[in-house]
Amino acid sequence: MNKDQLEGKWKQVKGEFKQKYGKLTDDDLKYSEGKFDEMLGKLQEKTGQTRENIEKEINEW
Hints:
There is one protein chain. By secondary structure, this protein is mainly α. The protein has one domain. Helices cover 82% and strands 0% of the residues. The longest helix has 22 residues, at 26-47. The relative contact order is 0.11. The mean pLDDT is 82. Residues 4-56 form the CsbD-like domain. It comes from Bizionia myxarmorum. This is CsbD family protein.
């Protein structure tokens, strides 16, 4: 899965969350997105793997 596909999936998830939890704002979702990016960065730092490899592993889970 490439970055565009991952971003597309994230947009789908955000839409589903907004529908289910109407009180969530775009700021809440951007915060979560930022935390996910932070987690990927930490995984890259600790494992030495590329972001693409980490995203691929996450997709396979």
